[in-house]
């Protein structure tokens, strides 16, 4: 109990502060009797608990039933998939090498056609709306009619489930296991669909790594890992619409069932007696006499009344609202819309479509392209399988009602520079470079001529190019005048003397004119094994940093800083690579006493052998990674922690047996199956390596080593008779005494 010191010494109690009566509140937070039933189903679950297995199963079943029984719901799902996927996205790779980009894009198109990727994307988009999520598994399929045997197997969300979810195990929900950061690690996938005719009551799920699973759903809450039907909030609208329709039809049928009603306004007893609710048949086109005092009247049908159309319209609009789809698209009825309102209504929907396309790129296409690249890079030699090139996905344009107005807007943007032709072609799903080449072939002109024509068409409507050329001429005239004034300056106005080095390395003083040699430098040097600088080429710079002497002739008088651009241009030029290769072949062939053709033939044989060994080794790596279930990253992580293949890790159980399997499967590697652990460990640790290249120094070094070994008469223990004959033919070919028919016919002896 706290003691009040003021009251203890003064005998007076301290005044207590008065708490204000706070009356602020939210109506939605009040517990009134009027809304207590409305808020009866609220909960405080997290995303995964709210979307539990039982909730998802019930929602998915009802959503599929609604899409199959309600024509509007079915049409909304199909229309949305049509607009979202269309004819499918187009891959556009950006490696910096135009020829390589075209090859990669072409092979991706062929592979996509072989596995019907567009069809599967449409199915995924439809399942995402109806089921709430779609699943695809990237796996090998030998039946794919393409060198890349990767395929995508589509499965329904019912198949991704864990029969018995571990109780209170963190990071595990139905069908998904994720890490502490919420990233999926493993998906549990049943071998058969639970509702298929081949399914059994108990199925053990197969764990599949997350990198092979293409999981696409609308994530609306943090830490959400499973999706629910996207139209779940309006799912009951279809039921009420059908009840209204059936009630209207029943009322109309009831009214039509009575041909006429007999009634009388006379007092009881005055009219002819008629039994109540008695019926009789009425023949067509006949005249009948009614009982005395009775009149005949038809029943008036009160349905459908004036509110039926408005009610039905409101129901359809509400059903499509979760997808931002306008009424005229959901109902396929634009009778009450004009052009302006139609475009305005479509803007929110197309914004949502663009967002879903971006999600598709992140969750499906990029993951799929990463798996495809790992295999395609090895099959076609595109590059490093681990280095996925920069790329983008070009989706089909959203359709427009007024094509002329849209074309005029695009033309204006092209003319004022706010839009480029490359972007226009990309929005249409086409490649600009390929389109320009096609136009050049069709019109029989060069690509440069087509580009010049497009430039004039877009930017020369008011002679802008002529104005630019005139400005260039004026600038050149101004520079010429400035140089003339500088040449007529007095000696006192000339540059002051500076200290520099002459061509012999001695200091010089005096007035230095532009273009005179002031300093010698060496560029293009290398480093030997001992770290000393070797090689290089000397050039002399003037006082302005321009090349005065030495260096490439095309760079004479130009700034030294632009030399790197020249080398970069040369290195990126395939013709320069080929010219350098031909010079090396000619030089080495002359040194070995061979013709260039003989040198290339020998190099091709050695290169093919090396390429075959490289392919066998890469296949062995891929087989080892798949069988053992580990990667280069796993080995690096374990070795950094001081572990190796002898450690008792879960993934390394039975490693000795798996290593023996790899050695037996690939005997060309020369690994002993009885002692293969260390070599297979190093094999997987090596990772993916690029194939050998003819433009490398190793290519010419292998030829030199082989020729020198032949001249020394060196033999190998495992040389077959065919190899021995080939070796002897090469030795004879070097000294010009070959009698081989191939050499005689080809003129190899000179």
In short:
The chain is α+β, with helices and mostly antiparallel strands. It is 47% helix and 10% strand.
What does this structure look like?
- It is a single chain.
- The chain is α+β, with helices and mostly antiparallel strands.
- Among the domains are: 188 residues, no CATH class; 70 residues, no CATH class; 72 residues, no CATH class; 130 residues, no CATH class.
- It is 47% helix and 10% strand.
- The protein is built from 24 helices and 16 strands.
- It has a 4-stranded antiparallel sheet, with no helix packed on it. A 3-stranded antiparallel sheet has the order 3-2-8.
- Helix 17 packs across helix 18 and helix 20 crosses helix 21.
- The longest helix is centred in the middle third of the chain and has 42 residues.
- The C terminus is likely disordered.
Walk me through the topology.
Blueprint: H1 5-10, H2 47-50, H3 53-69, H4 71-85, E1 90-93, H5 98-115, H6 117-130, E2 133-140, E3 150-155, E4 172-173, E5 176-178, E6 184-189, E7 206-209, E8 213-217, H7 237-257, E9 261-264, E10 294-297, H8 307-320, H9 327-330, H10 339-380, E11 391-394, H11 403-416, H12 421-427, H13 432-443, H14 447-459, H15 464-487, E12 500-501, E13 507-508, E14 519-527, E15 533-541, E16 547-550, H16 563-571, H17 574-592, H18 596-628, H19 632-640, H20 655-665, H21 677-686, H22 697-711, H23 721-734, H24 741-746
Antiparallel strand pairs: 1-11, 2-3, 2-8, 4-5, 5-6, 6-7, 9-10, 12-13, 14-15, 15-16
Helix pairs in contact: 3-4, 4-6, 4-10, 7-8, 13-14, 17-18, 18-20, 18-22, 19-21, 20-21
């Amino acid at each position: 109990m706290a003691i009040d010191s003021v009251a203890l010494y003064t005998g007076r109690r301290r005044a207590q502060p008065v708490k204000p009566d706070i009356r602020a509140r939210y109506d939605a937070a009040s517990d009134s009797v009027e809304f207590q039933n409305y808020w009866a189903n609220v909960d405080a679950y997290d995303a995964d608990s709210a979307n539990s297995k039982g909730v998802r199963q019930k929602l998915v079943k009802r959503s599929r039933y609604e899409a199959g029984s309600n024509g509007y719901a079915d049409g909304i799902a199909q229309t949305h998939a049509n607009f979202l996927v269309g004819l499918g996205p187009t891959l556009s790779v950006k490696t910096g090498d135009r020829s390589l980009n075209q090859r990669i894009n072409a092979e991706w198109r062929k592979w996509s056609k072989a596995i019907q990727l567009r069809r599967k994307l449409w199915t995924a988009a439809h399942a995402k709306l109806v089921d709430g999520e779609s699943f695809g598994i990237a796996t090998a399929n030998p039946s794919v009619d393409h060198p890349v045997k990767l395929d995508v197997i589509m499965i329904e969300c019912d198949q991704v489930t864990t029969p018995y979810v571990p109780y209170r195990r963190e990071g595990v929900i139905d069908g998904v296991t994720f890490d502490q950061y919420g990233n999926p690690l493993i998906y549990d996938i049943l071998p058969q669909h639970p509702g298929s005719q081949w399914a059994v009551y108990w199925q053990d799920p197969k764990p599949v790594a997350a990198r092979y699973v293409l999981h696409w759903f609308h994530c609306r809450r943090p830490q959400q890992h499973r999706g629910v039907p996207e139209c779940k909030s309006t799912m009951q609208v279809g039921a009420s619409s059908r009840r209204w329709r059936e009630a209207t039809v029943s009322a109309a049928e009831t009214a039509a069932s009575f041909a006429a009603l007999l009634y009388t306004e006379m007092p009881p007893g005055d009219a002819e007696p008629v039994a109540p609710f008695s019926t009789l048949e009425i023949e067509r086109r006949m005249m009948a006499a009614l009982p005395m005092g009775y009149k005949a009247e038809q029943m008036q049908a009160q349905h459908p009344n004036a509110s039926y159309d408005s009610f039905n319209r409101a129901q359809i609009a509400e059903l499509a609202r979760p997808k931002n789809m306008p009424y005229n698209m959901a109902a396929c009825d634009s009778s009450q819309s004009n052009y302006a309102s139609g475009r305005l209504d479509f803007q929110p929907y197309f914004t949502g479509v663009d967002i879903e396309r971006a999600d598709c790129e992140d969750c499906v296409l990029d993951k799929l392209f990463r798996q495809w690249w790992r295999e395609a890079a090895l099959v076609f030699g595109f590059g490093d399988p681990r280095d996925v090139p920069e790329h983008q996905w070009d989706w089909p344009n959203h359709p427009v009602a007024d094509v002329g107005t849209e074309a005029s807007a695009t033309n204006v943007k092209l003319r004022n520079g706010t839009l480029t032709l490359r972007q226009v072609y990309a929005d249409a799903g086409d490649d600009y470079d390929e389109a320009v080449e096609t136009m050049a072939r069709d019109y029989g002109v060069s690509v440069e001529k087509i580009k010049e024509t497009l430039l004039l068409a877009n930017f020369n409507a008011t002679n802008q190019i002529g104005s630019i050329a005139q400005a260039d001429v004026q600038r050149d005239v101004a520079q010429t005048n400035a140089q003339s004034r500088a040449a007529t300056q007095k000696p006192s106005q000339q540059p002051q003397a500076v200290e520099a080095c002459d061509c012999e390395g001695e200091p010089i003083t005096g007035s230095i004119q532009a273009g005179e040699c002031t300093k010698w430098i060496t560029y293009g040097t290398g480093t030997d094994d001992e770290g000393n600088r070797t090689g290089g080429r000397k050039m002399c710079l003037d006082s302005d940093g321009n090349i005065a002497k030495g260096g490439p002739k095309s760079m004479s008088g130009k700034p030294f800083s632009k030399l790197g651009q020249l080398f970069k241009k040369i290195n990126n030029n395939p013709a320069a690579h080929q010219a350098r290769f031909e010079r090396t072949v000619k030089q080495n062939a002359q040194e070995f006493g061979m013709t260039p053709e003989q040198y290339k033939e020998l190099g091709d044989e050695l290169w093919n052998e090396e390429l075959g060994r490289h392919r066998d080794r890469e296949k062995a790596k891929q087989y080892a990674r798949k069988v053992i279930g580990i990667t280069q990253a796993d080995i690096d992580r374990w070795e950094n922690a001081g572990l190796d293949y002898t450690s008792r890790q879960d993934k390394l159980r039975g490693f000795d047996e798996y290593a023996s399997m790899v050695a037996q499967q690939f005997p060309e590697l020369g690994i002993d199956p009885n002692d293969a652990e260390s070599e297979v460990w190093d094999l997987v640790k090596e990772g993916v390596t690029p194939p050998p290249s003819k433009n490398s120094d190793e290519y010419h070094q292998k030829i030199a080593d082989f020729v020198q070994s032949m001249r020394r008469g060196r033999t190998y223990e495992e040389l077959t008779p065919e190899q021995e004959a080939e070796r002897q033919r090469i030795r004879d070919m070097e000294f010009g005494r070959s009698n081989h028919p191939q050499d005689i016919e080809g003129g190899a002896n000179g």
